[in-house]
Design a protein that fits this description.
The complex is a heterodimer of chains A (289) and B (306). Chain A is mostly helical. Chain A has helices spanning 10-38, 41-46, 59-67, 70-98, 106-118, 123-132, 150-161, 165-173, 178-189, 191-206, 210-215, 224-237, 241-245, 252-286. Chain A folds into two domains: 1-57, no CATH class; 68-289, Orthogonal Bundle (MetI-like fold). Helices cover 71% and strands 0% of the residues of chain A. Chain B has two domains: 2-45, no CATH class; 63-303, MetI-like fold. By secondary structure, chain B is mainly α. Helices cover 75% and strands 0% of the residues of chain B. Classes of the chains: A mainly alpha (289), B mainly alpha (306). Chain B: Residues 78-293 form the ABC transmembrane type-1 domain.
Amino acid sequence: MAAKYHRMKLFDVILILFFVVLTIMILYPFYNAILISLVSENEYIRTPFLLVPKKIVLDSYRYIVEKSMIFKGMRNTIFITAAGVLYNMFLTTICAYALTKDFPGKKILSYLIIFTIYFSGGLIPYYLLIKNLNMMDSMMSMVLPMGITFMYMTVIQRHFESIPSSLIESAKMDGANEIQILFKIVLPLSMPIIATFVLYYGVDRWNEWWNGMLFIKSVDKQPLQLILRNIVQDATTTNSSASSASGAMPFGDGIKMASTVISMLPIMCIYPFLQKYFVSGIMAGAVKE
Amino acid sequence: MNEYRQKSIWKNIVYYRYIYLMLIPVILYYAIFKYAPMYGIQLAFKKYNLQGGITGSPWIGFENFIYLFKKAEFWQALKNTLVVSFMKLVLGFPVSVILAIFLNEVIFVRLKKIFQVIFTFPHFLSWVILSSIMFNLLSNSGAVNNLFELAGIGRINFLTNKETFRFLLVYSEVWKEAGWGTIIYIATIANIDPSLYEAAIIDGANRWNKIRFITWPGIKSVVITMLILQVGHMMSAGFMQIFNLYNPSVYSVADILDTYIYRETFNVIPNFGLTTAMGLFTGLTNCILLLTANFISKKFGEKGIV
């Protein structure tokens, strides 16, 4: 803005220092987790406040590769994310496109959809539903119930409404039906916003554990974050110092942190580069609110 | 468009036949996964047994509710829900507003962007991941306690300490969400007419004056809308967060309605009737609060009076 007239004042220095401290407070927990996953148990115990590792050891990761279910969980989660996002985008885009049209019954349908964000059947009816649908212990129980996120759908709908109707009308003249128009004209014109919500849905599905915990009993079908949760919650109840007493036992904290790091790695890697897409998504959603 | 509206409804339906075709999967989705569970709500008024299921179990009227309202744990969970929500509102809500105002004052655009990327990052991680990191950091032998020990404060077991646990919930919520919450305010500030600031500089306004008389009035109505909407969410104090962070030693201060319902449903001999009743109570209260909040915020939005 007026930076050319602006000389650094004490206020600016304090402000930046304040945000640097905040940055450290936000990032240190992640740094600490990565660090613990990379050092030996000996070093971890001997250094009360670890900042720079003396020696990087990959034992924890080696243990995970060899013995833990983490990678099986990751395979499941990749499946859930891929299948889930496809399913999400299919339902969301057709719903959003249909709602841009003035078909008879549109009002009722809109109200019925909006009603579901204010009120739901609750936990037990949901649980019994999945049970009655015979989806217990099936990967589908983590994909099919998570169909449309209302907020994402309305943003996409508003974007579709902004597409010039002349484009759609001329396609209609050429004899295209609505389904063809959506897939051949509207979607290709909306790629940036579609990409944004693929990211949103992708993150949501990647973070799946709740349905898994409710419905999946076989360990080899569990999603990554549920397996992580079981590792973490398990060891908080058992005595963690017991493992250090007998030297042969693996380094519990190291393994837990390595599992955590692996679980957040994809988001950690893509987020800094795609942050502006995420922000543009929420911004488009906030316009009308 | 108008020419079709003149025609009879049947012609209209035929005209939109492909739209209806497209809507079939959507309607199926909502019918099965959103509306079918509502059929199960009748369990709140029934005595559930496995053989009978939802339809066949006998009706018992309001007995589940009467039993529920007599339970001390229920009132404790209700109280915890409201107290935790209230603490998050009072201590957590202003953080985003203040951060946004201050971020706007950072004069290096590049640096501002970097701060924003960092502050919004934790929003995209699940509570499973964040709780795992917190368990390690805050445990008795974790980094924070080691630092406290070095500083002579002594070790505090944050995860089992009843006095500090609710503050831990507020703090970790702020850690995850405060940065993300700034986005809407920063965008609102970006929409403020820059000539206002320029005029203020000519008039000799200092930083504080600009915040007080331009930035704050510019975002006030959005802040109030967001505040009302958060009040509307009072009944959900953060199930995912608490469920991943709490443990039996802090149930008395952190067990909210949603976590209580979960435990009653799956960890003891299940009484589906009772927990459905509890879910219905929570759901209805939540629904009323949300609708009221939405109504009020729309009133504010339309008339623009703040």
